[in-house]
Fold:
Amino acid sequence: MSINALAHLSHVAKTALLFVILSFSQTALAQDPIETGLFNNKAIYGYDTVAYFTQDKAVKGSKTFTTTWRGADWFFSSQTHLDLFKADPEKYAPQYGGYCAYAMATGDFVGIDEDAFVIDNGKLYLNYSASVQQKWLANKAQYIQQADAQYPY
Structure:
């Protein structure tokens, strides 16, 4: 095959891949029960969900301490946190599968900033950003009620 034909084939393949990627809407791609982003399977982008409860901050998890739950890979900073999660994942998993709590109030599946979190009544809520979180906090009870009705899982 000539160099020209290979270049054309490469261009066609790239164009086809781009078409496939663009033909999916964000909503279609984000229908998984747990938000993991587009290019991996890490819940909360690899952050330790138990640490939000025990350390009141976002803590990066480790490949050493992982489990799979609801189709996503969960990373933890310690064996203790992994064991706590395995014993009661519903207690520690973020609400709405880790999607933005503010966006979920209108049924939108939007990613989060792992530092924009609130624990309310023993439940972890994550938001897209600190500024979005401030809007969510201004009417938290209503947004939680709306998001509870919207999240399909």
Remarks:
- The longest strand covers residues 62-69.
- The helical segments are 3-23, 26-29, 49-54, 79-87, 89-92, 101-104, 130-138, 140-150.
- Residues 5-9, 17-30 have pLDDT under 50 and may be disordered.
